[in-house]
Amino acid sequence: MATATKTAARKPNAAFMKPLTPSPILAAVIGAEAVPRTEVTKRIWDYIKKHDLQDPANRRNINADAKLKPLFEKDQVSMFELTKIVSGHLK
């Protein structure tokens, strides 16, 4: 019989927990304080849901409003593009 091995609990990746400073364009949406990348994503999705910006026909697409348009640089992006766009606005 094989013995069961205990797996250690996963440690959070330090890179995800490092506070990053948003660009002025991103700060208009999520606030200016430095926050971890995970919190940036959460705040953007909170904003998108609060303002009902998901495309009703295809929920994977996000429609830009006045605050998101400078960030996206177009009228609509897919949720898969969102991470790449946001990464360019974090330092």
TrEMBL record:
It comes from the Bacteria. Signal peptide: none annotated. InterPro entries: SWIB_domain, SWIB_MDM2_dom_sf, SWIB_MDM2_domain. It holds the Pfam family SWIB. Residues 15-91 form the DM2 domain. This is SWIB/MDM2 domain-containing protein.
